[in-house]
Every structure is written in structure tokens, then in C-alpha cells.
Specification:
There is one protein chain. 29% of the residues lie in helices and 25% in strands. With 342 residues, it is α/β, with parallel strands linked by helices. It folds into 2 domains: 175 residues, Quinone Oxidoreductase, Chain A, domain 1; 135 residues, Rossmann fold (3-Layer(aba) Sandwich). The strands form 3 sheets. Strands 3, 4, 5, 6, 7, 14 and 15 form a 7-stranded mixed β-sheet that branches. Strands 10-9-8-11-12-13 form a 6-stranded parallel β-sheet, with helices on both faces.
């Protein structure tokens, strides 16, 4: 079978590898669709250190089941989550499930960008394989995991009806957050990016205002628009250069949510005195858990969000390295998907 694996910094390649063998409690899934995440691009280029497993936004059908798996069936249409918490440790008991020691130890084998991938028993027993509703496409299913991450992040930010919100970075997650904020009752939603087609998409999906941050001073624009600043700024890009203008756009007593994953060792300079006197709350949000996935499924099933409009490119699995590079360099791509032809 084919799998897309990292082979040195900056290089992903398609390899023929053996189909994984199942142990009791495990599940083998035949890939239908997989989304390219910004973290996949960063893994290939070494931003998080050497190596890494590619592909976690996946949908497909169950090919086979290990012993003791009783609540799933062969040929079930499913989505799978690559990380699960233990639900018992101190972090989990405090609601910080994605900080659990088990969380990053669970993942697909050999990766999610493969004709077939093995889901470990830890994931299966903790609800990490979720049935896809019959009316939902595999394509939409592959975008549930990043949607669930957005759901979790905005919950953490405690968005209130009437809030004014700035979202910096109109990639797939930023555009999803625009839609979620509209459902949560935000009174003004502003999207910022440097690419015009992404700003146009943001307006179609619910942004009240958009800012081309390549030619516009974002904090000055926000001040003219809101007078006091936004209640919440969401940085939905891993580029640390986006953080200072987002922070400067927040009102006194407001909140800054860092959502995009920065590269390892990325640094920013902040004026501590201003941060203290303005009483700004800075928070981060990483990944999601199974309850967030079910909420994302419900949102899509009710047609409360539009994911398919964000898909701009589709590549066959054999072209996955080209898909990753396209997602990294294209000036027109928004969401890039990979589909298996096996």
C-alpha cells in the first residue's frame, strides 16, 4: 500500500509499505479523504523538530477489526481522531485533556496519509473512531477534526453574544471560526489576511469587515471601526508576526486567543507594562477531544457551517508530496484535500 512519509527535513515522499497488522482492540481504516493541515506542512519542513506523522484529518471505511472490538463493523463509514486523552489524570480532571501525557502518544500507523492506517486500541476504546452520518460525505468528514479544534478554542475563549471579534488568518480554521462566531452571536466579526481571495471568502462566510493586513495597519483600522478595540482577537495562523498587531487591537480587559501553532522556538516581543496595565488575558488552544468532534458533526449535520466551499484543491494520494507543497506555496489555495484511489 502507499503511504506519505517524511524523509528528511523538507522532504515528503510516497512509499510502498506493508499494510499494518492489527492487535486486539485495534481498527484498520481504508482512507477516503484526508485534509492537509498547516501542522503537516510544518512537520515536513522541521518546524516542530525532526520527523513526525503526517495526516490526521481523515475519513474512510473500516477495513478490518481486531479482536474485542464490538461496537464497530466492517465497512462502517467513519472519521478517526489521532490523539485521545486518558480521561483519568490530573490534567484530564481539570479539563485540560490535550495536556494529558497519553494524548500525543496515540497516533495512526503508519500515518493518516496512507491507503490504510491502523487506529490503536487506546483511541478505539476512548471513542476516537466516530461513525459518519449517512447523509454526510467523506469529503466533509475529513474536515470535522479541524472544525472540532475551532469549537474547543472558541469555547475556551468564552465568546459572548454581542462580542466584537478579530480573526487574523483566513485559512480554513480562520474561516471556520468566522462561521462559528456568527452562530455564537458575535455582533461584529472582522477577518484579516494578506490574500484577497481569502478575504473574499471570509465575507461570503459571515465576516462583517475584512482587512488586507499587507497594506493596512490593523490596530489603527480596528480603533476606527470599534473605538475601544475588539473583545477578542483570535490568531489563527502560526506566524508569530501576527500576534503583536492582534494584541494591539484588543480592548482593555479583552482577550487574545492563540490558535495557530507556531514553529518551535518562535519568539515575540511584548511590552509587559502595557500588557499588565491593559489587563489583557492571553490564552492558547490546541487540538480537540471526542466530545468536540461530536459537536462539530452536529453543526455540519444541521448545516450551521459550510465546509465544502473552502475546498480549492484535491490531489490523489500518490501526489501527496505535491499536495503538501501546493498547500504551502499556492497563492490561491484555501483547503487542500487528498483522496485515496485504492
Amino acid at each position: 500500500m502507499l503511504a506519505c512519509l517524511i524523509n528528511g527535513q523538507g522532504h515528503a515522499e510516497i512509499k510502498e509499505v506493508p499494510t499494518p497488522k492489527l492487535q486486539p482492540g485495534e481498527v484498520l481504516i481504508k482512507l477516503a479523504y484526508a485534509g492537509i493541515c498547516g501542522t503537516d506542512i510544518e512537520k515536513v519542513h522541521g518546524a516542530y523538530g525532526p520527523g513526525g506523522i503526517l495526516g490526521h484529518e481523515v475519513s474512510g471505511t473500516i477495513e478490518s477489526l481486531g479482536e474485542r472490538v464490538t461496537d464497530l463493523r466492517k465497512s462502517d463509514r467513519v472519521i478517526a481522531h489521532h490523539h485521545v486523552p486518558c480521561y483519568n489524570c490530573h490534567y484530564c480532571q481539570q479539563g485540560d485533556h490535550t495536556m494529558c501525557e497519553l494524548f500525543k502518544k496515540t497516533n495512526f500507523d503508519p500515518c493518516g496519509l496512507a491507503d490504510y492506517f491502523r487506529v490503536p486500541e487506546a483511541n478505539v476504546t476512548r471513542g476516537g473512531v466516530v461513525l459518519l452520518p449517512g447523509e454526510m460525505s467523506f469529503e466533509d468528514g475529513s474536515m470535522i477534526e479541524p472544525t472540532a479544534c475551532c469549537v474547543r478554542a472558541l469555547d475556551k475563549a468564552k465568546v459572548c453574544s454581542g462580542d466584537k471579534v478579530l480573526v487574523v488568518g483566513m485559512g480554513p480554521t480562520g474561516l471556520t471560526q468566522i462561521q462559528l462566531l456568527r452562530k455564537m452571536g458575535a455582533s461584529m466579526i472582522i477577518g484579516a489576511d494578506i490574500l484577497s481571495h481569502r478575504l473574499e471568502m471570509a465575507q461570503r462566510l459571515g465576516a462583517d469587515e475584512t482587512i488586507d493586513s499587507s497594506i493596512t495597519n490593523v490596530p489603527e483600522y480596528i480603533t476606527r471601526l470599534t473605538r475601544d478595540g475588539v473583545d477578542l482577537a483570535v490568531v489563527s495562523t502560526g506566524n508569530p508576526k501576527a500576534i503583536p498587531p492582534a494584541l494591539a487591537s484588543v480592548r482593555r480587559g479583552g482577550k487574545l486567543l492563540l490558535f495557530g501553532a507556531p514553529a518551535r522556538d518562535a519568539m515575540i516581543n511584548l511590552e509587559a507594562g502595557s500588557l499588565f496595565s491593559r489587563q489583557i488575558t492571553i490564552m492558547t488552544s490546541y487540538s480537540c477531544i471526542e466530545s468536540d468532534i461530536h459537536r462539530a458533526l452536529d453543526l455540519l449535520a444541521r448545516r450551521d457551517i459550510d465546509l465544502s466551499s473552502m475546498v480549492t484543491n484535491r490531489f490523489a494520494l500518490r501526489d501527496a508530496p505535491n499536495a503538501i507543497e501546493h498547500a504551502r506555496t499556492s497563492q490561491t489555495a484555501i483547503k487542500t484535500l487528498i483522496l485515496s484511489e485504492s
